[in-house]
Write a structure and sequence with these properties.
Elements lengths: L5 E7 L10 E3 L8 E6 L4 H11 L13 E6 L8 H4 L2 E3 L2 H13 L4 E2 L6 E5 L31 E2 L10 E5 L7 H4 L11 E6 L5 E2 L1
Parallel strand pairs: 2-6, 4-5
Antiparallel strand pairs: 1-3, 3-11, 4-7, 8-11, 9-10
């Protein structure tokens, strides 16, 4: 018997309030911010496919943060993007698998989300490995022109030792700007307010 996904909203910005039953389209407001924690997110077979693919991709150790493995989808390759051309390439099944799962979760508010054709595996193999506090950048889909509005983390293993959490921060409100006081975001800063720390557990999504 396959467990159904369990979806928990762990953050909701003021501008996200009251929008649960509305369709937001392809371009939600820039100041809209929400976060979900989903357990039993994928089928066991789909997780096995993603994990098996990981072992086929060369390990990149060029950055001190953690080893990484990159892949992209062939149909969306930009011939002028030398970095993407050097990455491991798949025929589109990874994006299709992820998009089908996202659609089945029926997230609220009803964002029209689909994955961009770039993916990476992060591997923390040594004690103390970590990613420094940062704000994720935004990318543009090379085929559709759609701009990314969210980051998805898929945990392919469980961290049994102490530590390993992914921590979400909300930017501290600035007194000198009343408009920004009313907005919440997931932008981390040196004095950011912790929303939640999520432990890495197999087959969960953040």
């Amino acid at each position: 018997m396959v467990a159904a996904p369990s979806i928990r909203k762990i953050h909701q910005s003021p501008n996200d309030q009251g929008l649960d039953e509305h369709e937001l389209g392809d371009n939600p407001p820039k100041d809209l911010a929400c976060a979900y924690h989903i357990t039993d997110a994928f089928s066991t077979s789909d997780l096995h496919k993603l994990n098996s693919l990981r072992t086929q991709i060369p390990l990149d150790v060029s950055r001190p943060t953690c080893p990484r493995r990159f892949l992209t989808e062939k149909k969306c390759l930009d011939e002028n993007d030398e970095f993407a051309q050097k990455q491991h390439q798949e025929d589109g099944w990874v994006g299709a698998l992820i998009d089908a799962a996202v659609s089945s979760w029926n997230l609220q508010p009803k964002h029209c989300l689909s994955s961009l054709p770039w993916y990476r595996y992060l591997e923390y193999t040594e004690p103390g490995g970590h990613m420094a506090k940062h704000t994720d950048g935004s990318n543009v889909h090379p085929a559709t022109g759609a701009r990314s509005v969210a980051t998805m983390l898929i945990y392919l293993s469980t961290c049994h030792d102490a530590g390993g959490e992914t921590t979400l921060y909300r930017k501290r409100e600035k007194k000198q700007n009343k408009r920004k006081q009313q907005q919440a975001s997931l932008l981390p800063s040196s004095d950011g307010i912790i929303i939640e720390s999520v432990r890495p557990v197999y087959n969960t999504v953040l």
